Amino acid sequence: MTELRIEDLPAHHLGAGVVKRTTLLADGRELIYFDDADTTLGSSRAVDARGLDPRPATASMRQDVLTGDWISIAAARQNRAFLPPAELDPLAPQTPLNPSEIPSRYDVAVFENRSPSFGPALAEAIGGAPAAADPPRDLEDLAHPGLGRTRTSVGRCEVVCFSPAHAGSFGTQSPSRARTVIEAWADRTAALSELPGIQQVFPFENRGEEIGVTLHHPHGQIYAYPYVTPRTQRLLDAIDRTSPDLFERILAFEQAGPRVVLRGEHFTAFVPFAARWPVEVHVLPHRHVPDIAALTNAERDELAPFYLRLLRGVDALYSTPTPYIAAWHQAPVNVGRAAVRLSLQLTSPRRAADKLKYLAGSEAAMGAWIGDVPPETAAERLRDAVEGVQL
Domain named Galactose-1-phosphate uridyl transferase C-terminal: which ranges (predicted)? Predict the structure, then answer.
């Protein structure tokens, strides 16, 4: 590595005492530090002095005329790290022997993915990235079906590092650190929603090699899409076929039933009535909010220990950590915000201590699901596990 240089970053104060500091990586990608309320770090951060290759051109996407779905073709993702040893962890703070993505010590760090599935539209806006050749015009443009249709995959993919530690997950963090991550999610949701061409923002965490995780470092991701995702389009259709208060009705239905796992002042966690996965739990806020950015400080304060208890309960089901996808479904940026409520949907294919549910012919090919575990049974097991969790 070259000689270490230090810069003093200005502070932007967020909720719960969290401080945000922004800088750039050597190739112009944005890097954002979020400092805990009880941080031991100062305002100084090391400068990223690596010599990096130019950023790749933004990927392209192709329309599947049979479904209308858009498929991003992002060949640069083939170059991403695959289960590196701890001493070469690309999400750890840089050392003389590890030229990682983050040049300095941190509590929580967020940066633009080096090999994104969705990339920038305007070269001048983001420090040297190639401009998009053919970005989507609008939602109407994307909805029009046709053979051979392509567009540039305009959007943004960010990595959210929950900790500088080499191993762990969201559930292994302290309540203070969990609160910092929630503040980071809220900040990034608001910022990404303001970018030109963004239609939906999706924070998520993949946990476990069984899910396909290629880094053991505790981290999640945020995708900012140029379209409304297929799953959300189906949700909007369901709301149109039923009523605008569908989520309020779902919450009341589940709160009155046997599948509630955990209930707080502002949130309820439950196994859904028609659960697909052996482990599946949803979380809904008690009032309508379209996304994490719309949560009040009181709601965010409750969510940190609430979510930790839920995740640790999932891990307590078995003697080894449970693989999962934790998906924060948020309302689209420009449509459906009065009806689509923020929800967490956590799913795991683990159906026994040493068995996984694999999507075979019926589920993978036809989308016709067969549940292995009755939702009421799953809720009882998970409720017992959560009740034993101590933070």
Answer: 257-383
